[in-house]
Design goal:
heterodimer, A: 260 residues, mainly alpha, B: alpha/beta, Rossmann fold, six-stranded mixed β-sheet, 11 helices, 26% strand
Chain lengths: 260, 283
């Protein structure tokens, strides 16, 4: 019994330490963003890697989510004779919730894991120590460009996902549901309020930030050689995916109280 | 100088002073959780001299280098490096001290995403305002020094183990450091490659006048570095010759055993020691 309690205390301590270290990293990254030196070319490179590199997966996810949403909702709306409103349902769902969350989950899988693996490998091969020995702060050189790239590119990718999602819905509405283009697009616009658009734009900033900071945090705390890198990669994806959903809930709650 | 008394070193250190201690450890202790890593470690390293740390794996040798670089902080004791008390400095302050230091890591720790040339010129390109043309010239110069000039555009993954260590040495020396730290630079290499890495270390020490601190458990390499010196011949070529008595005296051996200094002395002192542990290690 005492042994079990001791184990539980150690587990809680370890979890609290992780949280503390995560917030320390976030604080250090934010401070480093607003002071010199700033590695501009690394930021450009990371925008390319995180943003353009994720474009294909985001396009595919957005398109097929919009398409399947049109298929499913078309059947349900038929029961009420409301098939022409399919555009309204797709735009509201994609822009308010599915676009930001699915894009974030895709980024958690692709970018979060990639960052954790890359930084984890650098830790176990002493490249991080080498950076410090060469007079470079790893937070400034590695973390800040990635965090800023995630922060900037997640909303842009979300807008892309929303756009192709509505296009996917339009193709299904046109070819499968026999809803005309004019009715679909006017329904899409009617279903949207400016508050929804703000919500869809603001949320990805938070989600992009947490995905990248979690990837960096897990990567930089890697230990245990190549096995540790594998573990860090898995942990980064799992933690980022769960935190994306949690943050999405709280930010949505906050924005509803502020915007509506 | 081999003394355990801090007052003998006359701090703070003036870097311009010939043979001033560039590194000083005074009663340094470090433990991770319940495991003692270093216990009351005291030593100094004079400018232009060589300090060679020997000991079994896990004895705490590499930790000493990390403490010098400020990558770790001691639990107690004081550490002076190049006239700065590094055990009390923040990470930002340490960056200034590290600009005068270089370190060769055990496996090289080259950046995979950069070419050999980018690795070597990293510090000059990223952390100084040196013009790109000058950086390129310096990269070619140091790669030529270690005999790898033709590898400038290759990725580190295309190099052999020995070549990677030599590139790591070139990277460490590119910014003309005052102090170079070597963490097991020859571990896992074949004898011929070990010899070429040892030669680079001797060349750097004698031709570039860099104070060297070497951590190894390879006795042959340690004695080679201590008993050889590099000279320029009349034709300007480099020649490796047996070191003079004075030069041999400038190389200090320190044996670390379970986190404490078990021996400190010259190559001759180490060879003639009667300590049973040292005899076993030497044999």
């Amino acid at each position: 019994m005492t042994e079990r309690r001791g184990w539980a205390i150690e587990a809680v301590k370890s979890a609290l330490l992780e949280v503390q270290e995560y917030f320390r990293l976030c604080g250090a990254a934010i401070r480093a963003t607003f002071s010199r030196p700033f590695y501009w070319h690394d930021l450009i490179e990371q925008i390319d890697v995180i943003g353009l590199g994720s474009l294909t997966v985001v396009l595919l996810t957005g398109f097929f989510t919009g398409a399947v949403l049109a298929l499913q909702s078309g059947m349900t709306l038929d029961q009420f004779g409301a098939r022409p409103f399919v555009g309204r349902l797709i735009s509201a769902s994609m822009i308010k919730e599915l676009g930001p969350v699915l894009t974030a989950l895709m980024l958690a899988g692709r970018v979060g894991s990639g960052i954790a693996a890359e930084l984890g490998s650098m830790v176990v091969t002493e490249q991080i120590s080498a950076l410090r020995a060469l007079g470079t702060d790893p937070i400034r050189k590695l973390v800040v460009p990635r965090v800023l790239a995630g922060f900037i590119m997640c909303p842009i990718l979300t807008v892309v996902a929303n756009t192709v999602g509505m296009l996917g819905g339009w193709i299904i509405a046109l070819t499968q549901l026999r809803v005309s283009s004019g009715i679909y697009w006017s329904s899409v616009v009617e279903g949207l309020y400016i508050q929804d658009v703000w919500m869809g734009i603001i949320k990805p900033f938070f989600l992009g930030f947490v995905i990248v900071t979690i990837g960096c945090h897990v990567g930089l705390r890697t230990s245990g050689g190549t096995q540790g890198v594998g573990r860090a990669t898995t942990n980064a994806v799992v933690a980022a995916s769960v935190v994306v959903l949690v943050v999405d809930f709280f930010v949505t709650r906050l924005l509803i109280s502020l915007l509506f | 100088m081999r003394a355990a008394d801090i007052t003998a070193f006359g701090l703070p250190v003036e870097l311009a002073e010939p043979h001033a201690p560039v590194v000083l450890f005074d009663k340094v202790n470090l433990a991770f959780d319940d495991k003692t890593i270093l216990r009351d470690v005291t030593f100094s390293v004079r400018a232009g001299h060589t300090k060679i740390f020997l000991g079994a794996s896990g004895a705490g040798k590499s930790t000493i280098l990390k403490l010098m670089l400020g990558l770790l902080k001691p639990d107690s004791g004081t550490i002076w490096v190049l006239g700065h008390r590094v055990d009390q400095m923040t990470e930002t302050q340490m960056m200034g001290v590290r600009h005068h230091m270089g370190m060769v890591f055990q496996e090289g720790a080259l950046f995979d995403s950069f070419s050999v040339g980018e690795n070597v010129g990293y510090k000059l390109y990223e952390e100084t305002s040196m013009p790109l043309e000058d950086v390129r010239k310096r990269v070619e110069e140091v790669l030529g020094f270690v005999g790898l000039a033709e590898y400038v555009d290759r990725p580190p993954s295309a190099l052999s183990g020995g070549q990677r260590r030599r590139v790591a040495i070139a990277r460490a020396m590119a910014a003309r450091p005052t102090l170079l730290l070597y963490d097991e630079p020859t571990t896992g290499l074949d004898p011929m490659t070990c010899l070429s890495v040892d030669t680079e270390i001797v060349k750097l020490r004698d031709l570039e006048h860099v104070t060297s601190i070497l951590v190894t458990h390879q006795l042959r390499d340690a004695f080679f570095i201590a008993t050889h010196q590099a000279q320029r011949t009349a034709s300007g070529e480099m020649a490796l010759v047996p070191a003079s008595e004075e030069k041999i005296e400038e190389a200090d051996f320190v044996m670390i055993r379970e986190g404490s200094i078990a021996f400190e002395g010259s190559a001759g002192d180490l060879r003639t020691t009667t300590d049973p542990y040292l005899r076993t290690f030497l044999s």
